[in-house]
């Protein structure tokens, strides 16, 4: 028998937990038409123009009269989002923190005090022209080093030349921040020689303390760039001769992300990840949330959690700045959700955002950082980046995340520079795609949040200690850089 879940007593809709045909009785209502899992049914009558509430907040407006038991979706509900907004700082009192978990993982402690979850050597090309060269170097070096390191990985991209100004600066900032990552014992930067993203300028953006772990290869100046690159990686291998040692939960840096969401993502996987985020923050750790366009409609919830008026103003700036970015390109700020999101039951960007922000838990927002910047403080940080899975996950890694919790209702095989833990919102996805999924958050509906939280914490700590994610087993490791501005 099908059932539906009401999240807040004020809600006008309930979310279906299973498919149900027309005429079925669900939540004491008779369905007027078939309603699929993750989709919404009306709990009460609504008039045209009425706001429609889910999560206790408006997710849009009714475009016509809706009767109880009707399917509520894009045929009768539309976004109410417009352009940039005016916001007020109305801080909420933080909820009392729980006692920190005395949990540990086995990580790699670096000289600067940070703890990595992997002990790898990364190869970063400055420009797309040497992307395949970087891959050849990494492949051959990995075979030679064997299990002396956790891996040798080339992270290729098509950028680094024909870029100007802010666009070039973004590419350089991402690469410089990746070069500082604690999961990389050492980094080989492979340049061509004539590109806009000159190695010397890139090196200037890398702190002095990190320089001993960096090697540079100029391909145009090398008689055999592959052999020279391998030789430099062999030098870096000595830096990877460190053991795993115990580290506290508070030494984990967690990035949180959702992609291919469905109507259950905001009910199961995202709030579950929010509880893990809070556990890390309570232990003194760091959590990064991003996807700025996917908080439109829910931004006030984060603004009210700003730790200071200055942080509030920074959130307003990054949100309105991103909205203006859409407007300047002639696009509506509500141009979301994706076709897959819609098929999974998400109707408007407000609905998607109200579900997505739950990944950030309930901790105060301690800081806001720009795209390509690295973390500066403990607690929860908001990072400027778009919603695109690959671009935003790369930005999370560059900011310093040593693991990413990635929720999904539709599924995706993508993996990124750091261990990417795929968390399904429903049993069906987890059972159909075990080669993609690391954890089934559908367990929330069976066993409750407390049991699912304990199980997910255990999985995260095991992965931080070296257990491979599905993406790592599949060799899914890549980056994507946010392209802005003109191309020469």
Description of the molecule:
This protein is an alpha/beta fold and 488 residues long. It folds into three domains: 75 residues, Archaeosine Trna-guanine Transglycosylase, Chain: A, domain 4 (Roll), CATH 2.30.130; 121 residues, Rossmann fold, CATH 3.40.50; 226 residues. Helices cover 29% and strands 19% of the residues. It is built from 14 helices and 23 strands. The protein has a seven-stranded parallel β-sheet, sandwiched between helices. Strands 1-2-5-8 form a four-stranded antiparallel β-sheet, with no helix packed on it. α1 crosses α4, α2 crosses α10 and α5 packs across α13. The chain is globular and about 75 Å long. The termini are far apart. The model has no long low-confidence stretch (mean pLDDT 95). InterPro entries: GD_AH_C, GD_AH_second, SAF, SAF_UxaA/GarD, UxaA_altronate/galactarate_dh. It is an enzyme of class 4 (lyase). Belongs to the UxaA family. Keywords: Hydrolase, Lyase.
């Amino acid at each position: 028998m099908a059932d539906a879940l009401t999240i807040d007593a004020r809600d006008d809709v309930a979310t279906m937990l299973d498919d149900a045909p027309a005429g079925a009785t669900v939540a004491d209502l008779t369905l007027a038409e078939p309603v699929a899992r993750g989709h919404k049914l009306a709990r009460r009558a609504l008039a045209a123009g009425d706001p429609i509430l889910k999560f206790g907040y408006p997710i849009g407006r009714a475009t016509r009269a809706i009767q109880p038991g009707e399917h509520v979706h894009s045929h009768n509900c539309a976004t109410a989002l417009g352009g940039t907004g005016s916001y007020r700082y109305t801080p909420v009192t933080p909820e009392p923190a729980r006692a920190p978990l005395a949990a540990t993982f086995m990580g790699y402690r670096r000289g600067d005090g940070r703890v990595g979850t992997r002990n790898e050597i990364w190869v970063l090309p400055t420009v797309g022209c040497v992307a395949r060269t970087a891959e050849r170097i990494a492949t051959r070096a990995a075979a030679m080093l064997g299990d002396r390191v956790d891996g040798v990985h080339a992270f290729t991209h098509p950028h680094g030349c024909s870029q100007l100004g802010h666009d070039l600066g973004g590419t350089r900032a991402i690469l410089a921040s990746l070069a500082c990552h604690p999961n990389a014992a050492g980094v080989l930067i492979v340049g061509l020689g004539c590109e806009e993203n000159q190695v010397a300028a890139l090196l200037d953006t890398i702190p002095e303390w990190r320089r001993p772990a960096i090697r540079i290869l100029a391909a145009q100046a090398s008689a055999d760039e592959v052999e020279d690159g391998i030789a430099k990686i062999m030098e870096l291998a000595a830096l990877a001769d460190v053991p795993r040692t115990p580290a506290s939960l508070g030494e984990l840096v967690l990035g949180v992300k959702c992609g291919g969401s469905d109507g259950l993502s905001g009910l199961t996987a995202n709030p579950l990840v929010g509880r893990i985020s809070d556990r890390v923050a309570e232990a003194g750790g760091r959590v990064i949330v991003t996807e700025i366009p996917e908080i439109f409609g829910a931004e006030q919830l984060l603004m009210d959690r700003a730790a200071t008026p200055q942080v509030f103003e920074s959130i307003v700036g990054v949100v309105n700045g991103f909205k203006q970015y859409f407007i300047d390109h002639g696009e509506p700020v509500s141009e979301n959700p994706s076709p897959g999101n819609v098929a999974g039951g998400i109707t408007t960007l407000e609905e998607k955002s109200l579900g997505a922000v739950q990944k950030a838990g309930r901790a105060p927002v301690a800081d806001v950082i720009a795209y390509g910047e690295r973390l500066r403080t403990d607690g929860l940080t908001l990072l400027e980046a778009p919603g695109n899975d690959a671009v935003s996950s790369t930005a999370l890694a560059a900011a310093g995340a040593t693991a990413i919790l990635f929720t999904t209702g539709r599924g995706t095989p993508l993996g990124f520079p750091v261990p990417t833990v795929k968390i399904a919102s429903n049993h069906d996805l987890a059972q159909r795609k075990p080669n993609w999924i690391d954890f089934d958050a559908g367990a929330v509906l069976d066993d409750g949040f407390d049991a699912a939280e304990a199980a997910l914490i255990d999985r995260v700590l095991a992965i931080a200690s070296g257990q491979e994610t599905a993406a790592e087993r599949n060799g899914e490791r890549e980056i994507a850089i946010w392209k802005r501005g003109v191309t020469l």
